């Protein structure tokens, strides 16, 4: 099996790929959306929304990276997911009419389309195709969240880190980045894996010593993808 096929087989179960919501829609539905979409751009560190606030619409990420994280009363942060090109963000809470359980912040400069809540809801009511896409995507999202919880729990920190790197590799590749190149801080990576910064730095240094990856600032280059995948399949 080719390297690309192996990575896809491992990571696909952890990727929302929810841009399918907007695929294969009738021309009139797409035209309706584009009449009301607001073009936005943001810088690394900008917030799309904050935990505890009610959604005013949804965000269609055209290019860039956005992380969603949950913060406890004590200040501890856990990154739940990192979105990339084509993803829709924040629509589940809009449909449920609930406040956001997470905050969403840009990991890099990004371009975004904002779809107001009333436009999104009216399209669900008026378009059978759009409603069908939403139901299908919600079902897939539930599967991804389940996989994230169950699989990450069974791994030790080292394997969770390797899996996270492979997932991010695939997301960055699909967004047009060179194969094997990820841009993320060690702190952001620790929040995503659910481990201390010190532990993540120690494991990264060991992987670097083993010549499996290179680290330079925020850039991580995965050198031996097949070896990293072999580490997971031994578990």
Kindly describe this structure.
- The protein is α+β, with helices and mostly antiparallel strands.
- It folds into 2 domains: 18-140, Jelly Rolls, CATH 2.60.120.10; 155-233, Arc Repressor Mutant, subunit A, CATH 1.10.10.10.
- The chain has helices at residues 3-11, 27-36, 91-96, 117-126, 128-154, 157-174, 186-193, 197-209, 225-233, and strands spanning 38-42, 47-49, 57-63, 66-71, 77-83, 88-89, 103-106, 110-116, 181-183, 213-216, 219-222.
- The strands form 3 sheets. Strands 1-8-3-6 form a 4-stranded antiparallel β-sheet. Strands 2-7-4-5 form a 4-stranded antiparallel β-sheet.
- Helix 4 (117-126) crosses helix 5 and helix 7 (186-193) crosses helix 8.
List strands and helices in order, with pairings.
Elements: H1 3-11, H2 27-36, E1 38-42, E2 47-49, E3 57-63, E4 66-71, E5 77-83, E6 88-89, H3 91-96, E7 103-106, E8 110-116, H4 117-126, H5 128-154, H6 157-174, E9 181-183, H7 186-193, H8 197-209, E10 213-216, E11 219-222, H9 225-233
Helix pairs in contact: 1-6, 4-5, 6-7, 6-9, 7-8
Tag the structure with descriptive keywords.
alpha+beta, Jelly Rolls, Arc Repressor Mutant, subunit A, 2 domains, 4-stranded antiparallel sheet
Give a quick precis of the structure.
It is built from 9 helices and 11 strands. It is of the alpha+beta class and 235 residues long. Helix 6 packs across helix 7.
């Amino acid at each position: 099996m080719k390297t690309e096929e192996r990575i896809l087989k491992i990571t696909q179960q952890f990727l929302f790929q929810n841009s399918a919501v907007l695929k294969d829609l009738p021309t009139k539905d797409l035209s309706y959306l584009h009449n009301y979409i607001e073009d936005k751009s943001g810088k690394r560190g900008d917030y799309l929304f904050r935990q505890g606030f009610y959604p005013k619409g949804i965000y269609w990420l055209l290019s860039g990276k956005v992380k969603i994280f949950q913060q406890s009363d004590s200040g501890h942060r856990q990154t739940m997911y990192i979105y990339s090109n084509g993803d829709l963000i924040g629509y589940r809470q809009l449909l449920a009419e609930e406040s956001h359980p997470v905050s969403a912040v840009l990991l890099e400069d990004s371009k975004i389309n904002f779809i107001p809540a009333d436009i999104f809801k009216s399209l669900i009511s008026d378009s059978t195709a759009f409603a069908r896409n939403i139901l299908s995507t919600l079902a897939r999202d539930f599967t991804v969240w389940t996989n994230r919880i169950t699989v990450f729990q069974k791994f030790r920190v080292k394997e969770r880190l390797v899996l996270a790197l492979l997932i991010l590799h695939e997301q960055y590749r699909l967004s047009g980045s060179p194969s094997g190149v990820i841009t993320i801080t060690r702190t952001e990576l620790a929040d995503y894996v659910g481990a201390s910064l010190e532990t993540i730095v120690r494991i990264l240094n060991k992987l670097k010593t083993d010549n499996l990856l290179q680290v330079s600032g925020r850039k991580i280059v995965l050198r031996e993808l097949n070896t990293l995948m072999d580490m997971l399949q031994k578990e």
